[in-house]
Amino acid sequence: MPIVKKVDFNGEVMGDFELSGDIFEAPIHVPAMHQVVVAHLANMRVGTHNTKDRGDVRGGGRKPWRQKHTGRARAGSNRSPVWVGGGVAHGPHPRDYHQKVNRKVRRLALRSALSLKVHENNMVVVDHFAMDAPKTKDMVSFLGRLEGAAKPLFILHESNVPVIKSASNIPGALVLHVDSINVYDILNHVKLIVTPEAVRKLEEVFGA
After folding, report:
1. What is the pLDDT of residues 151-188, one digit of tens each?
2. Which of 146, 161, 175, 203 has fewest C-beta within 10 Å?
3. Average pLDDT estimate for 20-43
């Protein structure tokens, strides 16, 4: 079974924490992670961009000048895409960027991402966040005691307002509930800081 360090809020090591091999020691499937990340970013796009083509721009009904004997190029409308103030040729219009990913692929990618963090020694289990009120200074001090705690991702099993507010002022830090965990945020952050209850929830939901 894979093992990670279990620490308290002072950063002191309390011992080892055993993880499920099905979740945290799974084969790392790069194509699955890539597919899920691409779909995640695509699904975040709103797709409300829109441009006016030459038929949507106001004006342009009158022919600018006669067809022949002017010495100038032929023109039928001053709203042509080649004119200033004209329509846009082949511009974007509202569309849906949604990409569907099969459930098995999503689960495979999540297990791969979690296993990658354990393999890189970038996951740590925090026994308890001893915070009664939000204080960024205490959170920064805690992260400073952890090795390589840059750009941390906190995964909690319950809503914890002091932790959320304390981490909100730290550049690159993000706090997620275990139900909102996703492959993109795991790979986009360096250190994975998880509560024991969140680990057990992951093992229960994504276990074999």
Report:
1. 899 999 888 898 899 889 899 999 999 999 999 999 99
2. 161
3. 93
Q: Does residue 122 contact residue 192 with C-beta atoms inside 8 Å?
A: yes
CA 164 to chain centre: 17
Q: Is the pTM of this model over 0.85?
A: no
DSSP 3-state of 8: coil
Residue 7, C-beta contacts closer than 8 angstroms, at least 6 positions apart: 13, 14, 124, 125, 126, 127, 146
Kindly give the residue spans of alpha helices, DSSP state H, lying in 98-206. Answer: 103-119, 136-145, 161-168, 183-188, 196-206
Query: Domain spans of the chain?
Result: 3-27+98-206, 46-96
- Residues whose CB is less than 8 angstroms from the CB of residue 170 and which lie 6 or more positions away in sequence, other chains included: 136, 139, 140, 143, 152
